[in-house]
Design goal:
Blueprint: H1 2-9, H2 15-49, H3 56-80, H4 92-105, H5 109-124, H6 128-135, H7 139-168, E1 171-172, E2 186-187, H8 190-210, H9 213-217, H10 223-233, H11 237-250, H12 258-281, H13 286-295, E3 309-312, E4 317-319, E5 323-325, E6 331-338, E7 341-346, E8 368-374
Antiparallel strand pairs: 1-2, 3-4, 3-8, 5-6, 6-7, 7-8
Helix pairs in contact: 2-3, 2-12, 3-4, 3-5, 3-12, 5-7, 5-12, 6-7, 7-8, 8-11, 11-12
Family: Belongs to the SAT4 family.
Domain Rhodopsin: 42-290
Membrane topology: Multi-pass membrane protein
């Protein structure tokens, strides 16, 4: 009787529903994986193209991308082992394999997000518009900005370590998570612990997103260009959106029917990581976009804040604004002593361009005067 009752209580799998759920587990994951690899590759190309050294923020983003491959592979394996089916319809051997893969998928989430968020925060310390805006009124303001960046890194590390340990020890013993035949094993409420971890992660996302905005808004450029610059940094908001969606999907998860209810939670776990990587890479692709448009004869494709282009005798483009990313020629500060005579002054090494250009380039001599003609 009990066996018959259990069989009657088992909902049947609807082929179309199973197909749609498995499709969602594969297609978005694949698209985000490809874009993550592509944007990171272009990020490195942009560094090389502008004669910049690969720095810690690049290495950490690369490490985060490498670690994100583990949950992505696990996602594909879940699809092959019952994801989208009701648990009661999955063969026991396959269900046991699914549980082990699901356990493995969750191990990389915090390390990936720690690497990505820390990479973005370290990148902020290489952005001259943030450094300049913080130094406009006092050196103390710049010091405070660095403190806020390091505070963000500390929060991200503590969040990652604490939630990784809590997630790992959800069940006692740990192996009971994927082997329910162990006698005396117990598990905490996975939905509660998962939701708390995701909410704390979202708090960190918002912190990283908002941190540079006050300094960016102090830029002495017109509103349209200011909004464009701020918009570049707001690309990280896509990561926040992914985090919110993941939280809502975690709340729908039921361990009693994990193969069926885990579809969207597991998929959004991998998507959140991939979207964060993509959002962290996009702001550094500016040099490639400028080169692309320039190759098509778009002479107006210039750095942020340019009001009108000028060309020196040696072909160096300058700006009335006062700051300009000159690619391998380094960032320059420009002052006018006559209508056609400008002083180029090399900035400090830590005041590289918005894309980090010029920190290692010694080709510009401090204070070098050249005549320029308006073009």
């Amino acid at each position: 009787m009990s066996s018959s009752a259990a069989k009657a209580a088992c909902p049947p799998d609807i082929p179309e529903d199973v197909f749609n759920r498995q499709l969602f587990g594969v297609i978005p994951t694949t698209i985000v994986l490809v874009l993550s690899l592509l944007t990171y590759g272009l990020r490195i190309v942009a560094r090389v193209k502008t004669s910049q050294r690969v720095s810690w923020d690049d290495y950490l983003m690369g490490l985060g991308l490498f670690l994100s491959l583990e949950p992505t592979i696990c996602q594909y394996l879940l699809v092959a082992n019952g994801l989208g089916h009701h648990l009661c319809n999955v063969p026991p051997v396959q269900a046991a394999r699914f549980a082990r893969i699901s356990f493995a998928l969750q191990r990389a989430n915090q390390p990936v997000l720690f690497c990505v968020k820390t990479s973005i925060l370290l990148f902020y310390l290489r952005v001259p518009v943030l450094i300049m805006a913080s130094k406009v009124f006092s050196t103390k303001a710049y010091g405070n900005f660095r403190i806020w960046v390091y505070a963000g890194i500390a929060y991200t590390f503590m969040w990652g370590l604490a939630t990784w340990i809590v997630n790992l020890t959800t069940c006692t013993p740990i192996a009971f998570f994927y082997d329910r035949t162990i006698k005396g094993g117990t598990c905490r409420n996975q939905v509660v612990s998962g939701t708390i971890a995701a909410v704390l992660s979202l708090v960190g996302d918002i912190y990283v997103l908002v941190l540079p905005l006050p300094a960016l808004w102090q830029l002495k450029i017109n509103t349209r260009k200011k909004v464009a610059v701020v918009g570049i940094f707001l690309l990280g908001s896509f990561g926040c959106v992914a985090s919110v969606i993941r939280i809502t999907e975690i709340l729908k998860f039921s361990p009693l029917d994990g193969t069926y209810t885990q579809v969207y939670a597991a998929t959004w776990t991998t998507l959140e990581q991939g979207v964060a990587i993509i959002s962290g890479n996009l702001p550094l692709l500016g040099p490639l976009f400028r080169s692309f448009f320039a190759s098509r004869g778009n002479t107006k494709a210039s750095s942020y804040g340019l009001s009108r282009g000028m060309t020196s005798r040696v072909g160096t483009r300058v700006s009335r604004l006062g700051f300009r990313n000159d690619g391998p020629m380094n960032v320059t500060k420009i002052s006018a002593s006559s209508p056609k005579l400008f002083t180029f002054e090399r900035l400090d090494d830590d005041e590289a361009s918005i894309y980090g250009t010029g920190a290692d380039d010694k080709s510009i001599i401090v204070k070098k005067q050249v005549e320029v003609s308006i073009s």
